[in-house]
Amino acid sequence: MTSRPQAQRAGTENPGPPARTVAVLGTGTMGAGMARSLLRNGFAVRAWNRTPSRAQPLAADGAAVTGSPAEAVTGADVVITMVYDGEAVLQVMTEAAAACSPAAVWLQSATIGLAATAQATALAEAAALPMLDAPALGTREPAEQGKLVMLIGGPRSLQSRVQPVLDAMSTRTVWAGDLPGQGMALKLACNAWIASITAATAQSLTLASGLAVDPQLFLEAISGGPSDCAYAHHKGAQMLAGDFTPSFGLDGASKDVQLITEAAARAGADTTLLAALGELYRAASAQGYGKQDIAAVIRAFDRGLVGGPS
Ligand SMILES: NC(=O)c1ccc[n+]([C@@H]2O[C@H](COP(=O)([O-])OP(=O)(O)OC[C@H]3O[C@@H](n4cnc5c(N)ncnc54)[C@H](OP(=O)(O)O)[C@@H]3O)[C@@H](O)[C@H]2O)c1
After folding, report:
1. 74 CB neighbour count, 10 Å cutoff
2. Rounded to an integer, what distance in angstroms lies between the CA atom of residue 71 and that of residue 192?
């Protein structure tokens, strides 16, 4: 990666025009849905994926499918990274940063934790590429429907250039703070909640079943009450059906619990619950459910007692 001259940098004091062309680097479960939401909203999308066959279907929706990250970012006003982890983000942007337009803004949306976000911020600074830490809340369906919630950390002066892009992918933007890393910190807090309530749902369904009560009655009992939660019904139904079609992949959740544990330890917060969650998600992965949905964490509790086989 070579850095571009500072004079060419699109300064945070100069907002510049809103984006029309967006590069999406990583068209897995989330990136493909985000790319389609952008296309529906009239953006030109330049897509790249490490495994080309996973990006190719986007061509039918109107995306320009490119052969490399550098080709994808060429001419793009906004560059979105949605690959798996911090290592992948740093690899891809090390390759692509020098090819970014001087007026481009990088939205780093993959869940990569705080240490890798600091490395990504340093990479962006070295390339004179304005960056917002922009993780996404929501799974495959919200990504496809443009109903994510985008969590942003970074200078507000970039907002006018990226807001139409964020609006195309989401129903809401939450500005977590002016520093890169603050969006990721909020994302880690949200994913600690999701990992916890998914495992808690699995625990209650297994407990009911193990105590010879129809597990469906757990969902009926909490329905409409103060402890009710739409996510418990959504994931609980998948658990009862044994349908673990990936929406939020279990190995991804396991990766996130590790990132959350590292951040919690750094913040001096207790990690007892996180350690237990980490063990449960790793146990389900070891049983072969890593590529399936996070709902398969129930297999760490029940070893196949609840729902159908999957
Ligand atoms: N699924 C969710 O509910 C959800 C929600 C919010 C945020 N996220 C986060 O969004 C990101 C993407 O998640 P996903 O669910 O879309 O995952 P996914 O379906 O497993 O896709 C992962 C993507 O990362 C790419 N990738 C992995 N390693 C790479 C590398 N070394 N170099 C280049 N590309 C690489 C994959 O390319 P290949 O196709 O070549 O393997 C694929 O495009 C993750 O950080 C995840 O934590 C996920």
Report:
1. 17
2. 36
Asked if residue 80 is part of any domain, the answer here is yes
Q: Domain of residue 232: give its range.
A: 188-302
Note the pLDDT of residue 2. Answer: 31
Region 160-184 average pLDDT: 97
Strands 44-48 and 21-25: parallel
Q: What are phi and psi of 136, to 5 degrees?
A: -115, 135
Mutate to test the pocket of ligand 1, among 27, 30, 250 (most ligand atoms within 8 A of CB): 30
Expressed in angstroms and rounded, the spacing between residue 134 Cα and the centre of ligand 1 is 15
Q: What is the residue with the minimal CA distance to atom 21 of ligand 1?
A: 28
Mean pLDDT of the 286-304 span: 92
Beta bridge partners of 149: 137, 172
- Ligand 1 centroid – CA 84 distance (Å): 3
Q: What is the pLDDT of residues 70-117, one digit of tens each?
A: 999 999 999 999 999 999 999 999 999 999 999 999 999 999 999 999
pLDDT of residue 302: 82
Q: For atom 42 of ligand 1, which residue has the closest CA?
A: 28
User: Considering the entire predicted model, what is its pTM?
Assistant: 0.92
Residues 289 and 147 both lie in one domain = no
Tokens for 167, please give them.
């609006």
